[in-house]
Structure of Hydrolase:
Amino acid sequence: MTESNVTLKQVIKLIQKVLNYMDPRLLDHGEKVAYILYKLLKVHKGYTDEEIYKLCTIAIFHDIGAYKVTERDELLDIETNTPINHAVYGALFIKYFSPLGDLNEVVLGHHLDSSYFEKEREIVIPKEALMLGLADSIALIHLKDNAIKQSWLETKKKEYLEENVGLFQKVNKDDFISTRLSDNTYKEELYSFFGRKVVYRDEIIAYAKMLAYSIDFMSESTLKHTIVVEAVSYEVAKLSGMSEEDAIRIKIAATIHDIGKIAIPIEILEKPGKLTTEEFEIIKSHAIIGYKILSDLNIDDIRDIASAHHEKLDGTGYPFGLKGNEICKEARIVAVSDILSALMGVRSYKNEFNKEKIIQILRNMVENNKIDTHIVNLVIENYDDIIEKVNFQTDELMSRYVTMKKQYKILLSKLDSNNF
């Protein structure tokens, strides 16, 4: 693993920053759930610090499966029974695309109540799911009422087990947790704990990729776009004579190049037909949002490549209006790969372009001083070979996507409340 002076504190801040962009109504929700869970696990005294680090990290992005506004509306309505769709989707996503895949069942079961554990089940849910569910419920009631009433807690003893509620009542003596949630002083305690855990560059990148894929899995077309940009960037980097290490670095930047789109409403991302001027400006903001998300993580080299994928050599691009030599070679490669992927893909407003049309468009952009001549020539000269390798490389990831969709339906059926 690569040396790093980054701690889990910075990774958690990255994840929470992304989730805050997704829905400001749930501002710092994952962070608050993680803090409550941290206090429960500490007072329990049955967990090592390493186990607590992992469980609290999972708590930060426990709602990662709720990417649609309607689903987040349901999460905010604490008075109703929350559908478990997002928990199933989130658990599968964590299983296949996060560094904490072995803890996916904790997320899978965080909206189940204690009755699920009263008899033997086909799907085994760990007891920590109930603790996460209680922490989630407490954070939401505090968001709603700015308080955690004892009378409300008493009603949760059967749902989340008297033992777990008792743990919370112990640490919330004199409204300690409620006060810290209200004045945000919980952050200092939580991040002091996370700040003691050193993480490596590989782990940081794994979490960034997880967040990027969480956007892409909104639809098959967005997923394919990222996979193609990632694969083309790697192939072109190798063709240009770059080392394997540099080619991998470009591939990683390509994977997370659209991470800022997590802040863009899905209605705009998937809008059929042409975008309005206002909508296009909203779409464009993803580049600067991505830059901000990836800052302060000791991966500035990758951030700078990823965030410059819409810059143009003549200075007409965004987000910074860079031009000429201000745009590094790595960013130029990702930019051409991004355009190639967009031209290859089918969208609601266009069909897939054939090879001749794609090459014509790329050449026109070179003539207009938009993209790099050398990189475009590499693509044209090796077009068929690149596409063949790209198709081969994308098969495995798309296979995981298909597997996820199938398992989602199976798990949802098995966990449906009507089957209890």
